[in-house]
Design goal:
52 residues, mainly alpha, 2 helices
Length: 52
Amino acid sequence: MVVKVAGGLIVAFVLFYVVVSPDHSAHMAEGAWHLVQHVAKSIRKVVDDLAS
């Protein structure tokens, strides 16, 4: 029950933040996507190094 309430509060906060500051939210999403790309490239490099 506590986990559901906490999850709901987090979702509500994120939605509120996106509505109040869409430019900053978009910048944060872009940064998160950049991080995902960097991690994927790093994993690919490790796998390539292990394979060779």
